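Data card: per-record layout.
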Amino acid sequence: AQESTPLAQLVTEQVASARRQVDYHLARARAAAAVRATGLRTPVLAPVQALLRTMQRLHADRQLAFELAPQAQDGAFRGEEQDLYELLGNLIDNAGKWARTRVVVDVRREGDLLCFTVDDDGPGIPEALRDRMFERGVQLDEQRPGSGLGLDIVRALAQTYGGSVQAQASPLGGARLRLCLPAAEGGGAA
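The structure for this 190-residue chain is written out next.
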């Protein structure tokens, strides 16, 4: 059977789009429930390290270095581990698509928040586009693989938890994506 007919392609795209919609709503519902729950504690350094190893393999053909900043602080996120993987996985994978040689992830406790920065040494993001990149369905570069839905899920999830995500300029010369999430009580270094 010919798989690449226009109809088959349209159906494939529609199914992928529907799946992204479902993922989006499931993630929001899970986060909303987590916000109401008490005592949720997800230590963050182990998931960050697992994601860095996964991304190293995913982007192996480009020989990128995925690094944890040496001064990264441990702490605990007041939320679901699956959401932490979703949030950081999207940001780190996005950085990997743009990086020339490396991606560096840092974690810092800032008051009641844990703030993650994901830096890459790619071309960076023009200031005018830094907010737009989190809108639904927006892809800054149509040549790169991706659904255009990942970063808006990140923003929606972060906001549901009472956190935030923003794009900045990175000291590595590319983009910095900064994600702040509520810290669990007594979570890690101050």
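Known properties of this structure: Residues 6-36 form the longest helix (31 residues). Strands lie at 42-43, 65-68, 76-77, 102-110, 113-120, 164-169, 175-182.

See the next section for split statistics.
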